[in-house]
Every structure is written in structure tokens, then in C-alpha cells.
Amino acid sequence: MTSRVLRTTRIACALAALGASLSAQAYSAHVYCLGEVFYEAYPAADDIASRSPFGNGCIRDLHDERAAVLLPSAIENIDRVPRDFSLRRHAWGFLDADGRVAIKPIFEAVRDFRHGLAAVQWQGKWGFIDTRGRMAVRPRYDAVQDFVEVGLAVATLDGRPMLIDRQGKPVGQPFEEVVRDVRLSDGVPARATVQYREEYRSASGERRYGGAGVVITRPLGDKGLYVASDGQAKYGVVDKDWNWVVEPVLDDIYVQEGAGVATGYGAEGSMMVTADGKLIGAGQQYESMNPVGAAFFSAALPRQAGFAVLDRDGTVVATLTQDEGHASQRHADIIVYPSGDQLVALVPGHKTPVTLGQGLSATDEMEGYVLFVDGSSRAAGLLTPSGAWLHGATAPAWLADARRIAVREGNLWLSGAQDELLNVVDREGKALLKPETVAALRDRPLTPLPGGVPGGPLGLLGQSHCQCDDVEVGLLLADGSIVTDASWSAVTPLDDAGGQADAPIKADQLRYAAETDEGMVLLDARGKALDLPVQQHIGMFRHGYAQVYGDGVVRMIDRAGKTYALPENFDSQVVAPGVVRFLKTAADGAPWGLYDVVADKELAAPAFSRIGDFRNGQAVAALGAGRVGVIDMQGRWILPASHHDVERVNDMLWRVSQPGKQEYESDRPAAVFNAQGKALTAFMPGLQIGDFGDGSLSAGNRERRWIISPDGSDALDMKDADYIRLGDWMEIRRPNRQGYLNASGAWQIEPAAWTATDFRGAPARALAMDAAGTRIIDANGKTLATLPKGEWVWPRRSDMLLRHYSTDRGTRTDYTDLSGKPRLTVDGLASAFSEGRAVTQLSGGGVRWVDTRGALVGPAFDALGAMREGLAPARKDRSYGYVNREGAFAIPADFQALSGFSQQRAVVSTDDASQIIDDTGHRLAYVQMQCGIRTLYGAAGQRLWPLRMPHGCKDRPQASAY
Description:
about 5% helix, disordered N terminus, six-stranded antiparallel β-sheet
């Protein structure tokens, strides 16, 4: 007794120093006696607390025969307690099961008792007391959770969670820095739900974590800056070291995709945030700022005064009136608008508007080239992406005949009404074709060549419509000149610009074949004949080599026209620079081999049913169905021929699928292997591979994921984490994982991506659910039984499992033993049994009891709780009371919140009061507002707390207990 008094006195003295700064939680408590409760998305049928928006407020539910209560502070002079219903200078204490003050109200905040200890807060720190009010763990933590059955609790100190025992001593190994919080549950071992912070990893391997006042949201531009929030819904910009470049004062920052700049919104209006971290337009009170294409921003001026147009550097290039802004048009990144009687254009890179003239309108646009017509609908001007303006004196005469435009390799091709080519114009407005070239092309069909090789010939010239023998064919070169030869009857390109080559083709590497009366001539990119005898046939170049046929012999040539002999074969095909795959015979199923035509030697004897193209010295090869692998250029196996299939991901990686029968091909397990034959991921169904944005790749399915390095040397197992690339950083977000801790704080079962129940029973068993299904595990995580498909639950205090499922008749519930063997099936979504009764939800609404035979018993209610000590909470007409086993109200439904009975005691509440009652409904104690303060009264109405009322406050007529 002396010890408790001393401890209480010490605490009281310390709290007295706080004066009026007592618990902010106490101040914010509601003056009514109905408190908020945690909402369960899918409550059990007998979880009556989750079916009400209210809980007991003035007296909380009993736990360990103690109920938390908020009353005028025991360390405050009662006359200093405000009587304005604000609950200032109130504090938390505990009542016993009969409603007497067991622990005086001296704490700023408290949690309910669990396993003999309750968390309490004073001077802003948390500790624990026992049921007699003695301090068991001194207050020193920033936050704590309740103790669980194994004797451990989670406490937070300096932002890091840790495990402590009942004496407050640290237990177990420290949690990793990435762990944000750990939630413990009862059972032996204790279930632990691990919550993780956002993790950020740089390309150099540096790691940082969220919750440090900087939360990266997206990269800004290409200079190492990032949009970030301060965790308090304010945004700014940080550099690569996460130092604030733009302080977090904005309400939001929107980054336009690929633009390198952003729009910010805050108290000073809208503004532009540049890639250098500068604010453009701050203080101008722009009402809005929106991107216009990729080159400009439009800022709405205050009071509808018009629009300011800013370039990407933040320079105002023009100010438009409301009418001019509404009449403006965007063509690619060019803005055209009327200004007075003139048409004006804003062109990227130009600091001032370009005046176009009068009476013009845009008629066509392609990739920044804009064609304008006059009032007679004739072409009158051309604006190029660089801002060159061809109009009036600067416009060529042929421009007036332009009707159609097309862009090829960045140049604009203009054609007339009959599709005749007028000219080709580059971005600077320069006409590439001379008048004589245009004249020469007028009567000849011109076939544009596919793009992809800058500087290559523009097109192929064919015969004219007159079919005259003296009309030549040839090439239209990039400089606008024409190459023809009287001996040529046709010219054929020999390169696929899409690229079979290992490296991009340069313009001077392009090759063409000219057909002549003698055969085919090899031409270079400018139409010059190379030093190769006339051939009867020249094939397409692949990997820098092509097959030719002449004098009855098939040979190989390189781009210079040098010839190479081929081995005696039936068929050969280029699969790598200077290397062919070949068949010796035409026999069905004849094997392929490899031959080096440059070295004139066989690399691999014919043995393969298939050989693909080589890249980086490797190719897919097969020995037959289900015998697929990867070989090098000597025919040696990098990946053995033991797989269903192999697909190339890139030069360094392969997607390899397992052999065997598979009902659905999409479910066939696959894995990623590197060029050294090393598996970088596990085999899994539904494997997806994607580009991560920095050269690395992501691989995985819904359950597990990897990040593969750009060189394919290794992979980071992300397990079930999600991740996105944020510039030089990768943000990793991990879902909660669950594991089990023993009494020493060690992981008895490591955290995993599953959902599991508490361990219960002897021997201990738990229910574990993941993508593979639901199973029963022992205390070491070993699977003891796999359950049939279904929605399984294992309610607390139940010796049976429950499975809910849907049928044509509606929802049903199976009760099974721990092996999944059915014991009972009932209609509806039913709860666990308690004292021979379970609660089931009826299809038509309402709930009823089910007895142990599965029969419905008793009347229907709006809501019904678990039977405890012969009484069950029930709701009728929006009020709550208690019913007996026959379904009659033993305690009338006069309450808005209540708890279940425990040791013949329960807590019930109305708007005005919370009270402790016995199992007959007799009131033992109650708390209500009296004279503007919370007041505790006994069974006979005698005041129990405060010991006296403030001066000037008229007490109730009941006698005081003191």
C-alpha cells in the first residue's frame, strides 16, 4: 500500500508540473458518452460491436476487471477544472468491476488492460501499470502496444519499433530499419504483422526510407531533382541528396509527362516549376497554369484579364486577351492566334511571336509543319518547326499548288492535286530539290523509301507512264540529286531498315541491286556500282552479309562486295555476321549445322532441329519438341536442351519455360536466365517481364517479383513488393507480412506474404492462407493439412473452422474439424458457436440463432452478439439490450452501445451516461456530465468522483459518498 501511494504521489507531482497542458486527448474527448469504434469491413455475424457506429465512451469496456474512465484530474484543484464541457483538466484512470475508483485519474491517455498491464501516458511518454496502479514499465516510449500472451509488447522509441518484456527490457534482435511498425497478437508463438516503410534505393546501392520528412513522388526533369512531399500534404522539390530546393509550401505539383517541367499550386496561385528547381510565376497570382504542348505554358491572369504564354524557361513570350486566347489553336508545339487583323504564331525556341500576315488560316499540320491557305483556299504559307515562314516574297512559286503534305525522315514532302511531287522542304525551310530535279520526276513514279536511316536515299524512281524505252530508273538521294543509268531496268533496296543487323545501319552502308540485261549489279548508297561481277541474283543483307548466285554457284558477299565460298549444302541462311546455318540434304527432318564463311570452316556439325539468329554470340537451338536450349557460335550449350521453349528478352537474358504437359499455356512455369546460363528468378506461372526504365528489367507475377540488373549479372528478389522508378531512385513499397515470434523475441516462423490466424489450442495450431490455398500449420510453420477451396475463418474461442461459400440457394457455412472434415452445415453467413448458440445472417435480412444441430431457434433480431454467461447483446428498433437463451429481453433494449458480459459485469451507454451493470441489469456505477464536468456516481446515486464539486456548482440531490 505504501509503495502504491509513493508511486502515485511521484507521478502526481510530475504531472502537476504540466499545469494546464494535460492530455490533448482528454481535451478532445466527446462530451457525450458514445465513443467511436473501429469499423470492420466484413464483421462476423455475431460481431455486434461492428454493426453499431458507437462504443462505450464515458466508461470503456471492462478488461482484467478494470474499465478506463475520463474524470477530473486527481492532481488538479477541483475549482480549477473548467465547467464548460471542454473536458480540460480531466485525466484517465480506471474503475474496478463494481464501479469504484481503482486507479485515480492522473494519466494523459491510457489503453485497456491486457494480461495484467495497461499502457499509460504521462509527460508525453508511454509506460505500463499493473491493476493496482503500480508502474511496471516506466514511461519513456513514444508509443506502445498492448502486451500479448507471450509476455511481449511493441514499443516505439525515436521512431523505431522494438520488443520489450514485462519489465521494459529490450528483447530479441532489433528490427530492420525498413520496418515501420510491428503489431502483435495473442497466441503462442505470437502472431506479428510487420508493416514496412517506403524504401528508396539509388543506382549506387544507397538506401533511404520514408517517414523522414521527405517522401519522393516523381522525378522532375533530367537534372537529378524530384518532386517530394513533407509527409504533411505539402509539396516542394528536392535535389539528389534530398535537400529542399523548393520548400514544401505548395498544395500540389503536377509534372507533365516527358516535359521536364511542372505546374505548382499554392497560396500564391499557380506557377511553373522548372527542371532547375526554379519557380516561375510565383507571386503573380495566376489563376491556373497549364501545359500547351511540350513547349509552352498558358497562365490565366487574375480577374479574367487574359493569358500569359510562357516558354519552358519561364519567359513570357506573349500576353493574349481573353478573345485571343479562346481563338488560339495549337499545331504540334506551335500556337497560332489572331492579334488584331494579323495572324501570329508562337514557335518553340523563339522569344518573340512570328507575324504570319492577314487573311490566312491553317489547313494542315504534320510534325510541326503547318500549311496555311488564303481566302481562296490556295496554299499561301508554310511554317516549319524551326519557325521558318515561307510566305509572300519568301515563298516559292510552287507552294501555291500544294494540296497534300507528308513527313519522311523529318522532311516535308509537298504534292499537288494529282499527287505530283512539288518539292521536299527541311526543318529550316530549305527546298531540297532543284527545279530540274522536280521536272525530271514529274513524269516518273516515285516510291518513297522506308525511313530509319538518316541521310539515306529518299526514293526509288521507276519507269514513266509512257513506257518509253529511253526512260531511266534510279535513286533520289538525300541531297535532292538523282542517280540513273540507262542500263538499269529496276532498282531494289537490299536492306531492311527495321534491322536484322546487330548494329544500326549508317546511310553509307545501304546497298541496292540494279537489274540490267546482263543480270544484277550491286550499288552503294549513292548508286555507284561496287566491284562485284554481275550476278543472276542478289539476296537481302542480313547481319551485313547477303547470298548471291552467279555462274551456277551460290556464294556469300559482304557490304563491300567481297565474296566467300559456302560449304556444299542444300540450304543456308545467315544467322550472324559471317556465319550461316546450313542443311546438307533435302531430307525431311535433316539437321542444321553452323558454318563460318569468313574463316571457311564448320563451327558445329549438323545436329539441330532448329537454330535461331545469333545476338551477342548466342541463339536458341533445339534437338526436337520439348528439347530447347541456347547455344554459342561453336554449337556448345549455354542452356541445356531440356526446356519447352526459350525466348530472347534482350542480348543478355532469356525467358525459359519448363517442359511437360500444360492445360493452359499461359500457366506454364517460366524463369529468366542470363547469358551465362544462371537462373535469375524462380520458375513460376504467369511470368511477366517489363522494362524498368533505366536498363534494368522487372520480372515476376502477382505473388513474387525481381529486379534484374542491366547487364543481367544478378537479380534483386523483391518478393511481394511493388516498385517504381523515380529518376535515379527506385521506390519500393512492401505489403504487410505476417510471422510468429516466440517469448524471446526471435522469429519462430519468418514473416511471409500470407494471412494467418493466432495460434490456439494444445498442441498449437493456426490457419494460414496464401495464393496456394488454405492450410493448417503447427507452431513451426509445418503444414499439417490442406483445406478445400473456400473462404475459411477460425474464430477465437472456437474449436471448429468455418467455411463460407455461395450456392444456388444462397450463402452457406460449413463447420469442420481442423482437417476440414465437415461436422455441420447451416444456411447463411454464420458465426462460431458460443454456449451452444451461433448467429447466422438471414437472406431476407436480420439474424437468428442456430443450435448445435443446425436448426434455427429463437426470434429474429436486427443484430445479435455472442452468448456469454447466458446473455447475448441484441438490437431491436435501433436500441440495444440483452436477451436470454429463449430470445426474450432479460435486460431491456434501452442503450446505444454495450459490451458482452464477463464475470457478471458489462458496460452500457446512452447519449448521456455510461454505466457498469450486473447480469440482472442493476446499475452499479455510472458517469455523466454534471455541472460541465464528468462525474462518477455509485449504485445509489452517491457521487464517487470528484470528491467534491467545484465552488458555485450545484450538485445533484443525491448524497455524497464522502
